[in-house]
Amino acid sequence: MKSGKIIKKRVVLISVxxxxxxxxxxxxxxxxxxxxxxNLEGTWRFSIGDNPLWSExxxxxxxxxxxxxxxxxxxxxxxxxxGFAWYRKEFELNSNLNQDPLYLVLGYIDxxxxxxxxxxLIGRTGVFPPVVATSFSLLRKYYLPxxxxxxxxxxxxxxxxxxxxxxGGIYKGPVGIFYDQDNDLLVKNLAGVWNFHxxxxxxxxxxxNETIFVPGHLESRSYYGLYGLITYTKEFTTDNxxxxxxxxVLGYIDxxxxVYLNGNFIGTVEEVRNSxxxxxxxxxxxxxYMLPKxxxxxxxxxxxxxxxNNNGQGGIYEGPVGLIHKDDLNLLKKAQKExxxxxxxxxxxxxxx
Length: 353
Hints:
This protein has 353 residues and is mainly beta.
């Protein structure tokens, strides 16, 4: 019983420190060129409880309450409620919307969530009961597959949330649908589904047939404690692109990677260091590698990353990810603002390791 109290106190301490981390950090949106396409802040439908039918596109939520987000559900009148609850929101897209990829940003959610678009699961963050892992300090940013969207009519977002204790819900913005303008500089966007494999610890090993959406932290893709070697692979075609001075941009990576093209080694993060970034931690260096012309195929090519993740959240956590001409890479670097340093996050990591 005594050990349980100690664990509980430690959980509370972590939560307090993590909240301070949130308030003293700069949201990732400020380090990307994200443009809001649809504003989703405002009135949503809301119900406490849990029912899988509530994710379906045709479910009638007319009897549900209205709440304003972002704010915790205690502020909406659900005082001292801990447990499951759902949010639903209808929205429409401009039929002339050509941007790709699109992201659904749901701000910060306490503690755990999974998100559905028109009845299809598009992502989850944190771990649901019986063993809860909170992710209340992580920005929720989910890829919106265009094939799931109705571009000429109504769409439905359904968000399932679990709160373990204290305040809960979608408590802090921004909330909306965004487009990353840095992708305009790419000649081929490689964001999306990649094949994924991990030789992590015994409790959390990703199989060789699994897929993961890139970019995004491993934790935001429901992979926790994946330490060791992590492999990402993606097939692509050059689509008659001019292969002279063609590079691959791999966004920002938490870990140390080795990059291969069609089985041939083409670089690692230390080879990306230069006079402009030599003082930065590797997690804050934009990864870019030349694609040797003699290694590119006229048809299908495969790029592979083997990442060694020893701590932290891990993975290809932020874009852009794709092919770019060398001349445009400098424009991309200018468009990318310096990654914010989160001193509280570093303190927490060092304190509990």
